[in-house]
Design a protein that fits this description.
Radius of gyration: 21 Å
CATH topology of the largest domain: TIM Barrel
Number of strands: 17
Structural class: alpha/beta
CATH class of the largest domain: Alpha Beta
CATH architecture of the largest domain: Alpha-Beta Barrel
Helix content: 40-55%
CATH superfamily of the largest domain: Aldolase class I
Strand content: 15-25%
Strand order of the largest sheet: 9-10-8-7-6-5-4-1-11
Largest sheet: 9 strands, mixed
Distance between the termini: 20 Å
């Protein structure tokens, strides 16, 4: 990990509308008390405060150059491109970002035109993460999405025309009314577009969402557990036959197009987060910003970093978190790298747990890495929880 460069995450907490399943910190853009322009100006001020903070720290072996920038949300593409350009200029002015950095913006169909995509390219964005979720209009309507399948095709084709050569499509399975056939129809339409990366996320029903409320009232009909398992198991085979490597639980990529920024998270590497509700991990400390827009703005404009919580783990805690995250990767956790980083072997802390899951066929050691088996993927949460 010593030579791994860190990344930068920027949170844009605005959307056109809030989807029925969404539990992220985001606000409908037309209902927010804080304007988008004011928020971007606040972000720029936080960037300057964090630069001063970083300069005050001892290096502790963490490089001060950054290999990735990821703008997520919310829906960053609802922000006028000119404001994002202003933010990018300040970010590059204040931080040392490599010329080869992976620079990603999340885009939702129906929120940006082709000229906006062209401006993204001119700003230095070289990767788009497009929130398609489904290629079925009735499914999109049930999700509360504000776009159609036609909008999805439009933004994907527009991105290619604008010169993007690294596109990632987000898709969701286990959705209300979604059959296995409907899921694989979306996969088929996605692969026909030949994106470089595809993310496949299982629906999670969170309590503080419309889906959570409807589910508790028995009003939400979702696929059976067997159907969801079938979707999971067959997705890897389907995408593998079409040239996509299954490199992380939910992620598939053509060779050479694995998400570099997200890989920092999965390897428990350092990164800095900017914006309302953004998290950072630096020098063994994990800390998060306030998730209230007014409190965020007030703190920053009083020249205070807007941190709300902070945690520094001991060696076992940090090591366990590294295993939990690393098991998401199909390659797993490299045992030599782990021992070099923490000065202990995984068996010194978790011999009993590893033996148990190995006997059950959920974990294995392969090519010097501790990894989930194919069966273990289906029970990943249970296995990962044993290490934290």
């Amino acid at each position: 990990m010593k030579n791994e460069l860190p990344g930068i995450y920027i949170h844009i907490p605005f959307c056109k509308t809030k989807c029925h399943y969404c539990d992220f910190v985001s606000y409908p853009i037309h209902k927010s008390a804080v304007s988008v322009e004011l928020y971007i100006k606040t972000l720029i001020h936080e960037v300057k405060l964090r630069k001063e903070w970083l300069a005050s720290l001892p290096s502790a072996g963490i490089p001060r150059r950054f290999q990735s920038v990821y703008v997520g949300g919310g829906t960053p593409s609802v922000v006028p491109s000119g404001l994002l350009q202003m933010l990018f200029e300040e970010l590059w002015k204040n931080f040392d970002i490599t010329d080869e950095a992976e620079v990603t913006i999340e885009v939702n169909p129906g929120t940006i035109e082709r000229n906006g995509l062209t401006l993204y390219r001119q700003m230095g964005v070289n990767r788009l993460s497009i929130g398609v979720q489904s290629f079925d209009d009735s499914t999109l309507k049930k999700l509360g999405r504000c776009h159609t399948t036609a909008d999805a095709y439009s933004v994907i084709n527009g991105a290619k025309a604008a010169g993007f050569r690294n596109l990632s499509l987000d898709l969701m399975f286990g959705l209300p009314g979604q059959s296995c056939k409907l899921w694989f129809d979306s996969l088929s339409k996605a692969t026909a577009l030949s994106p470089e990366h595809i993310s496949c996320y299982e629906l999670g029903i969170e309590p503080n969402t419309p889906y959570g409320k409807w589910h508790s009232q028995g009003l939400l009909s979702v696929p059976t557990e067997d159907d969801v398992i079938g979707m999971m198991e067959n997705t890897s085979t389907y995408l593998g036959s079409r040239g996509y490597q299954h490199y992380e639980i939910s992620n598939y990529a053509k060779p050479g197009f694995q998400a570099r920024h997200n890989s920092i998270y999965w390897k428990n590497g350092p990164y800095l987060g900017f914006g309302c509700a953004a998290y950072s991990y630096w020098q063994g400390r994990r800390f998060g910003n306030v998730n209230d827009l007014d409190l965020y703005r007030e703190s920053v404009y009083n020249n205070r970093l807007p941190e709300a919580d902070s945690e520094t783990l001991d060696i076992k805690g940090s090591a366990g978190e590294t295993i939990m995250l690393g098991l998401r990767l199909r390659d797993g956790v490299c045992l030599k790298t782990f021992e070099k980083r923490f000065g202990v072997s995984v068996w010194q802390f978790w011999d009993e747990e590893i033996s148990l899951f190995t006997e059950r066929g959920l974990l294995e050691v392969s090519s010097g890495c501790l990894r989930l088996t194919d069966q273990g993927l289906l029970l990943a949460n249970q296995v990962q929880a044993a290490f934290v």
